[in-house]
Recover the amino acids of this structure.
């Protein structure tokens, strides 16, 4: 009987290997899988390439993974946000790499990774420093840049509800990059606030079908990043 439920975040991330490319959902705090990220910190995999919208806040979640020196490169759109203190300092010191990607381009690169499309042309970033080293073509008199798809070895995603088949629904803005990241990863690991019985999720509202999900772990009381940052918490816990 098909069952993708794992007993804990630690068990779900146990085989993430050194040098892996990991897609991590989240738009700021919304949709950030903090428990899975903390389990990855405990696991200790290093030299990771992280694909995410931003670089985390404070000293928890993604920021803590970076601060623990487990990340060699970040591919993101917003490396410095209001509470981003870890990544900017490491980047200034030359201790971490950055590939800056416009947000819409980042989303489309990930979507193409999941759809089997190797590359696409976009006018975004033409005439900026981000066009350096990229193929440029003209279509209908307008310049476009060639952007390559992004795929991940793993995806860490947060959702609202899941069943044991891995069918997912999300909570409003927390949906953000989750669906396309599930499609673009070889192994998708999801933390769900609630795991429900088969049939309890109306098929008409399923956002991510279970075919794109390999592992689900229930986290009924997920941490709130903004509260942890306001309390100046650090992971591993101080």
């Amino acid at each position: 009987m098909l069952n993708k439920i794992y007993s804990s975040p630690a068990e779900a991330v146990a085989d993430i290997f050194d040098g892996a490319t990991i897609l991590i959902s989240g738009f700021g705090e919304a949709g950030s899988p903090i428990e899975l990220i903390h389990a990855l910190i405990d696991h200790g995999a290093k030299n990771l390439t992280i694909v995410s919208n931003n670089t985390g806040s404070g000293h928890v979640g993604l920021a803590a993974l970076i601060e623990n020196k487990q990340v060699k490169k970040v591919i993101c759109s917003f490396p410095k946000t209001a509470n981003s203190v870890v990544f900017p300092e490491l980047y200034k010191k030359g201790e971490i790499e950055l590939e800056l990607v416009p947000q819409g381009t980042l989303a489309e690169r990930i979507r193409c990774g999941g759809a089997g499309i190797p590359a696409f042309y976009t006018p975004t970033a033409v005439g900026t420093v981000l066009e350096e080293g990229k193929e440029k073509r003209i279509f209908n008199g307008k310049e476009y840049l060639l952007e390559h798809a992004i795929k991940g070895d793993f995806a860490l995603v947060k959702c609202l509800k899941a069943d044991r088949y891995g069918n997912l629904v999300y909570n409003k803005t927390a949906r953000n990059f989750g669906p396309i990241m599930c499609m673009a990863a070889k192994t998708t690991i999801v933390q769900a606030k609630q795991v429900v019985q088969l049939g309890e999720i109306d098929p008409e509202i399923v956002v991510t079908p279970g075919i794109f999900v390999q592992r689900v772990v229930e986290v009924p009381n997920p941490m709130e990043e903004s509260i942890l940052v306001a309390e100046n918490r650090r992971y591993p816990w101080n």
